[in-house]
Design brief:
TIM Barrel, 8-stranded parallel beta barrel, two-stranded antiparallel sheet, about 15% strand, globular, binds flavin mononucleotide
Length: about 375
């Protein structure tokens, strides 16, 4: 019997790298690592369980490229060579399976608390900032911006040396790269601001610098949020950004949709989802990953019909590490949250991660409090 499309192999164009199927574990912060940035055995175990569960790509949690870019306690880092031995442990563990392992590189910018980093948070423009002791962020200077580009590049090289198959640049969810992309957070009058070309320049420079410094085989993708209105990221600009990324030949674009079924209402007669709009905008797009609110096999197949090449999932894989292996069954329809603490322990979450998941609406069953 033919396998469902979601379970069929996928070749990354231009790379000739084969994924065992079309499933992606999306980046998920889990706070299980050490304050010095070294990735812990608990975090490695959590990722390994999902790799054994059959995902085509395993993406790590967002990992900071510099001390100043850290956003949470328990976040693992890739900003120092002391991180390399445990990163090698992670990649060699994942490579016991057929999954690829991709690190999600980021800098928190405005969202990097001074009480964690010891530094005033930087952002494209000086802005109101709850994470800064003074209540304001610092406008990034030329020197700061150069350091950010160098830090992303050095971190990507470190990931390459540690055995990762590639990296995902975190340009989504309002962290530093998307603060530069946003019209409201980026009010600069110089070449790092202004029109989309200026606001995307940080992302472009980071990408080009990394591409120059790692072998061609190393995968470089970009995650974006097509719409974050409160920081000034709008769909029309995001469509143009996709064109910029396409022309740069990034290996994949990962759309963070939160709900891939949500229909954009800009044209009443032709309501389409974000994935459809992006896919229909250009020929010859890089691989498109799309993520948000996928639970069942029917959901996953619907997203492939929208035009996504690969299907990303977050929350369902927290409770169901074997999601990717089960998805070939058209009737697979796992239970929705809330989940009990025991269920989450069985799924190899440590206590810190379980406590963190209590912050996610209705994810952990209330009796955990007792
Ligand atoms: C606990 C948790 C942590 C997350 N951390 C990250 C992260 O580090 N980087 C990121 O880009 N997205 C992060 N996300 C968003 C997910 O990657 C995903 O886009 C989102 O959960 C929607 O997919 P889902 O409906 O399948 O959960 C996180 C989501 C969850 C639930």
């Amino acid at each position: 019997m033919n396998k469902l499309k979601i379970s069929q192999p996928y070749i990354l164009p231009n790379k000739n790298i084969k994924l065992q199927n079309r499933t992606v574990l999306a980046a998920m912060t889990n706070k299980q690592s050490y304050d010095n940035g070294i990735i812990s055995d608990d975090e490695i175990k959590w990722l390994f369980e999902r790799a054994k569960g059959g995902f085509g790509i395993i993406t790590t949690a967002a990992t900071n490229v510099s001390k100043e870019g850290k956003a949470w306690n328990g976040e693992f880092g890739v900003y120092d060579n002391s991180h390399i031995p445990n990163l090698i442990k992670l990649t060699s563990t994942i490579h016991k399976t057929q999954s690829l392992i991709i690190a999600q590189l980021f800098h928190g910018g405005l969202k990097s608390p001074q009480k964690i980093t010891g530094s005033i948070p930087i952002s494209p423009s000086k802005l109101k900032c709850n994470e800064s002791f003074t209540g304001k962020s610092k406008e990034a200077s030329e020197k700061d911006i150069k350091k950010v580009i160098d830090d992303f590049t050095a971190s990507a090289i470190r990931c390459y040396k540690s055995g990762f198959d590639g990296i995902e640049l975190h340009g989504a969810h309002g962290y530093l790269i998307s603060q530069f992309l946003g019209k409201i957070t980026n009010k600069r009058k110089d070449h790092w601001g202004g029109d989309l070309g200026g606001r995307a320049k940080l992302l472009i420079k980071i990408y080009k610098s990394i591409r120059k410094n790692v072998p061609e085989k190393f995968i470089i993708g970009v995650r974006i949020s097509p719409e974050i209105e409160n920081i000034g990221i709008y769909l029309n600009d995001s469509i143009k950004l996709v064109d910029i990324l396409r022309k740069l030949s990034v290996d994949f674009i990962h759309l963070s949709c939160w709900d891939v079924f949500y229909k954009i209402k800009s044209n009443k007669n032709n309501q389409r989802t974000l994935t459809q709009i992006i896919k229909e905008s250009y020929e010859n797009l890089p691989t498109i990953i799309s993520t948000g609110n996928i639970w069942s096999s029917l959901d996953a197949n619907n997203l492939l019909k929208q035009g996504a090449d690969l299907v990303g999932v977050g929350r369902v894989a927290i409770r169901y590490p074997n999601w990717a292996n089960n998805i070939s069954d058209l009737n697979y329809n796992p239970n929705r949250p809330p989940y009990t603490v025991n269920e989450l322990k069985k799924a190899k979450l440590n206590n810190t991660f379980i406590s963190y998941m209590k912050n996610w609406n209705n994810f952990v069953k209330y009796d955990y409090q007792k």
